[in-house]
Design brief:
Layout lengths: L18 H9 L6 H11 L6 H13 L1 E4 L7 H12 L13 E5 L3 H10 L6 E6 L9 H13 L4 E5 L2 H5 L3 H14 L9 E5 L2 H4 L2 H14 L3 E3 L11 H18 L4 E3 L7 H15 L11 E3 L2 H14 L12
Parallel strand pairs: 1-2, 1-8, 2-3, 3-4, 4-5, 5-6, 6-7
Helix pairs in contact: 2-11, 3-12, 3-13, 4-5, 6-8, 8-10, 10-11, 11-12
Length: 327
């Protein structure tokens, strides 16, 4: 298992202005035992839960979904349909909880806000990807304008992508300052603020050590959530790379008293997968994080399988293929 990192809060350095201090701090974090980490993630994935607990876990997973459409062919009609589904996942069963959020490109935020309100989704947020998603390759001024426009359109949450090139070349302070600048752009004129999720793109960070360093960098810079991936590369969320991030937020709260959310995204498609992640959250962080406020799934197809499995638990049989909509 990877070692714990629990520095006393009084010893957390001021890394906000010194590249050397930030580099020294991040590279001073204990290295991740990759073999132990992967073994623990695999072991947690074998845990079985009782039928009553499974029913609870399925509804909890539904309530944690950021229901997502991020395609170049997205239309207003598709976004409206997705919002209606997010607010009422199963129109025939009012006991099914709504999802946590609808996640769209910034230019679809106004459409999503209107559609969620029309469907009565008072508790369903609208999240927007920003900062030149998914590549992150744009001037900072463009990224900040991208963020500000989405917030002005009503986005409740912003999912930004870090500059992986800057991080991998050791320009940690550039990444740190960009996260801080994007967070500032999330603030509205009335002082309210969209929550900021920071996407690492774990598949491009290459090592567990880099994922741990990126987790601490983002949290020190003020992220509200840390997120595994965009869903647009070959390797997205995995149990092992998510476990690194779960351990990081655990240790960060012990060090600072500040709780940070975690969002695995990309490749989580089945109820079985979702339950494995919930077990991992419970075993690593405890039930403090078992709510949509602190844990999310970034997904598009996961909801359908959760609905199918929920129907199976209640009726004893699987529904036909037309029971859920095809997004």
């Amino acid at each position: 298992m990877s070692s714990e990192v629990v520095p006393p809060s009084t010893l957390l350095p001021d890394v906000s202005s010194s590249p050397r201090a930030l580099r020294s701090y991040l590279h001073g974090l204990p290295g991740v035992d990759a073999v132990g980490l992967e073994a623990r993630a695999a072991a947690l994935g074998t845990r079985s839960i009782k039928t009553t607990a499974k029913a609870y876990a399925i509804d909890l997973a539904i309530s944690m979904i950021d229901l997502t459409t991020l395609e170049g062919a997205d239309t207003a009609g598709k976004v409206r349909a997705l919002c209606a589904k997010g607010v009422r996942p199963d129109p025939a069963d009012r006991s099914v909880p709504p999802v946590a959020a609808i996640c769209v490109y910034g230019d679809m935020v106004a459409v999503a806000k209107e559609a969620v309100a029309a469907a009565g989704g008072t508790d369903v947020h609208v999240a927007a990807v920003a900062t030149a998603f998914p590549s992150g390759r744009a001037a900072r001024s463009v990224k900040l304008a991208d963020t500000a426009e989405a917030v002005a359109a009503g986005a409740d949450e912003i999912d930004m992508v870090i500059d992986r090139g800057a991080f991998l070349s050791g320009r940690y302070l550039d990444v740190f300052e960009e996260i801080q600048a994007v967070k500032a752009a999330c603030t509205r004129e009335d002082g309210s603020r969209a929550h900021l999720k920071v996407i690492f793109e774990n598949g491009e960070l290459s090592t567990y050590d880099n994922i741990r360093r990126c987790s601490w960098l983002a949290m020190l810079a003020g992220a509200d959530f840390i997120k595994t991936s965009t869903g647009k590369v070959g390797v997205n969320a995995t149990p092992a790379n998510t476990l690194v991030m779960l351990e990081a937020v655990r240790d960060f709260r012990r060090a600072t008293g500040v709780q940070i959310g975690v969002k695995p995204a990309g490749g989580i498609r089945t109820a079985k997968d979702a339950v494995k992640y919930l077990v991992m959250v419970n075993e690593t962080l405890g039930d403090d994080w078992l709510s949509p406020e602190w844990f999310r799934f970034g997904a598009s197809s996961l909801l359908n399988d959760l609905l199918m499995q929920r129907q199976k638990l209640s009726t004893g049989r699987y529904s036909g293929p037309d029971y859920v909509t095809v997004d």
